[in-house]
Protein: DUF3089 domain-containing protein
Organism: Pelagerythrobacter marensis
Amino acid sequence: MKVWLTLALAMAGLAPVSAQAPAGAPDYTEDESWLCRPDRIDACATDQSVSVIESDGTTRVEPLVPDTDRAFDCFYVYPTVSLDQGANSDMVAGPEERRVAHAQAARFRQHCRVFAPLYRQITLTALREMVERGEARRPVAAAAVAFGDVAAAWRSYLAQDNGGRGVVLIGHSQGSGMLKQLLEAMPESERGRVISALLIGTNVERATDDPARGEIAWMPPCTRADQYGCLVSYVTFRADAPPPAGSRFGRARGAGNAVLCVDPAALMGHGESARAIFSTGGVGTSSKPMTEWVAGRPLPTTGFTAVPGLISTECVDADGAQYLAVTVNGDPADPRVDDITGDVFVGETRLDDWGLHLIDMPVAMGDLVALTARQHAAWAAAQGE
């Protein structure tokens, strides 16, 4: 069974668990319990240089230059990546944890200090075995262990590192599910620290007749860039391949509910043109690799590639589904590629019910990073800072 099948299963909707950490939770006062912490060389201190390819094929390299004064924090929880044996992963950062932090979290350090706890997440191994056995029940006990770790890491971060700073919560897939539970259980005394939450690649359901009712009801969706205390969440599908019937993403499970969709590019005022930043060679064995970005040229030597104007995004509510529709504006007259990778494949078969889950964050990565700075500025102004 391929990793593709289990990647998104973890966050199809884990059952709610207690906010209390289980016995034996890691000690997050110890440095080794963290995948990323600021001011050290780790998985989030990697080269984030981007090859920017314009429509005429000209290319320039843009390095990541962190702000001199990063005045806020980002708390990142990574998606389902662990290849460890057993239902829950260990607390050792393997290549898969380091790779995903490099791809998803490290770029945010341009504006914020990044904290990313290791946690005993539900493993790909366990989910693969569950699917092979035909089990519909999710591993609730394993989810409780995973969430207990994330909750313990959050409490430790607040106690030893926060110091009154604002913080953006960032997650993808299983990580977003963990943060969704954290926010639902969050006491009012902590909510004022939260600048925003970027819960990408998971369904956040709200009542269609009253958007103030539903999951994380206390947190409104973001409607402009200069807003704080709000939520950004979406799941991505190609505009010409919307969520089919039975899709685990983009279709609400609760009667009378809809899935929240907030488009980062629209918030940043770019219309439908998203600032996409992709991994240069693609997203791994679950999808097709990228072979070239410009016809006849080898792949760029940087780890990341941006293609201004190639990607458009738009929140769509149609046929009972709510999702971020991605359009690739390929132009056969210019030298750039006319399509991207990111779909989930089995052999040569594209699995449309998974959408573009593998590139939920890359399709709008530049917008997400820039948005955090705008949101922090609004939060700081409200605090009188």
In short: Residues 1-22 have pLDDT under 50 and may be disordered. The CA atoms of residues 343 and 349 lie 10 Å apart. Helices lie at 3-7, 95-104, 124-132, 140-162, 174-185, 188-191, 264-267, 365-383. The chain has eight helices and 18 strands.
